[in-house]
Predict the 3D structure of the following.
Amino acid sequence: MQKILIVDDQPLIRRLLSITLGRDYEVVEASDGASALNAIRIHKPRAVLLDIMMPGEIDGIRVLKIIKADPKLTGIFVVLLTARGQADDFRLGQENGADAYFIKPFSPLQIETWLKAKLV
Amino acid sequence: MLVPTPQPQLNAIGFARAFPFYVQLDRQLHIVQLGRSMQKIVGPVEPGSYLHDVFQVFRPKDLGTYENLLRNIGEMYTLVSRRGSGVTFRGYPEVGEENTLLLLLTPVLNSLSEQHDAGLSFSDFAKHDSAADALLLAQTTRMSALDAEKIATRLRHRGEQLGSILELGNHGVVFFDSEQAMLHVNTAFLEMLGLKRADAFDMRLPELDAWLRGLSDKDMGECPSLMGLREMHEPEKSRTTLHLARPRSRVIDLDCAHSADGGTVYYLRDTTHETEVDRMKSEFLAAAAHELRTPMVSIFGFTELLLHRKFSDERRTDMLQTIHRQSGLLVKMINELLDLARIESRGGLDMQIATHPLSDLIDNSVKGLMRADTDRQVNVGEMPAVTVLIDPEKMQLAMNNLLSNAFKYSPEGGIVSLKVRVEYTGNEPFAVIEIRDQGIGMSPEQVARAFERFFRADASGNIPGTGLGLSLVKEVAGLHRGRVELSSELGVGTVARLWIPIAKDKMI
């Protein structure tokens, strides 16, 4: 099974995505930027669902930059999740190579559909 | 051949008009007739009245007989009326018809009030009367003088009014003349720029520019120059923002305008507070959007899954419970936001403050909590018998928030205690309600941020809450002229102290 990493500080959001995707993927969870980076190096997931606004030093955009800059992590899809639908976040995501951008509240089934199309 | 020069003829009406102040005398110096304006001054005179009974003759000195009078033809006469208001007349005598004598006189009037006292108007003078001319001139001069004085007074008042308006306002205003010398500066301006009036008044525009550069916040880019602003004639370019670091950190909107005489006016508006409020508003909106969307993610996501997928009964129930809980949280958050907005926007105007026994407030708060969500008890200490000044509904809202926090943040149990003591701030007595728990506590950093909107000490999301409760407590306490304080230690517990004013005359 392909691995997917879910990064969000809200446990309920992790749970929602985990239930949605748990049927077809192996789901790994992280609640902040630092543990997300750890989990990425350990689990080498195919895709990361990434919240932008998180507590701690490392926010979602920073995690995205690190993934996209590291040649060993090429090919990992990064899907940004954020409550902020502002143009700024969207632009920052695009500039840093995010593969998709979903605004909260998102449709979990749409995320699943997107992943199924990409992770063939 | 000599051609006789034609003599101008004057008929009786013409004569009367030309010499309204004439006096006609017979040879015995009895008055035959008076001009119409003269009659106005001396009143009705019996025909045959003696000249000296009606007038006192000052010149010529020896005027007693007709012969003397004839000898003095060509001399100037001065008479003062004995009746009326004693008007002086000057004029020249002429020999009239049938050996009568005509004194062609003109009143000597130096002011409009004298004219008024004599009962005369301008129509009583003949067109050639020098008195009328002098009076007209006097009147015109006096009116101009009065006008000028009035205008000057009005301008002075206006100047004073403007001066006090400028002084009263909290906007800084400074005028420079076309030579760049300071003409006027108000206190607000001096205060904003940390200047003393005595020092400021010698300042020229370039010196003020240098002073401003010294105050500016270097982190906010180059300081705009007043001189430069002066050269900008389009209105939108003659406006800029100053960021000052000294005498204290300020954001100032600066406007520049030109006066007709080549001077310059600078208008400074301190927008530090507005800028700060704007920043806080957008921060608040961003936080509110984030916080409101988070429960929405669960509600929206789980209902979508339930609609499109099959789950075991157990999982279905679990998901429905989550949806229900999150909807409840959303409602609570919206209610608290509305409460906060209402309390803030009304600024306490709808407060129903009255005296209430403190014990009622405490009892109701504790009972309300018991009903709501827990079977745990509050240890209520001894209650001082005091009456407090509160809006019971709002204060109970604050108390409920503090008590439910104490329980929420001590998930492992432990004692929640409530004690009250009386303390004075200056002369003001306060009831200090202390709510202590033995819960998870907070780090000093968390305590510092605890009153921020949406701040949650529990980032795990295990303890439900909106992050608005303490903001509300703070608002309510403030509106009662009280306050709320927190002290806390991680893993040990939290103490909240709420200060409520005591009704002084109700102290027991």
Q: What stands out?
A: Chain B touches chain A through 23 residues (CB under 8 Å). The CA atoms of residues 301 and 488 of chain B lie 37 Å apart.
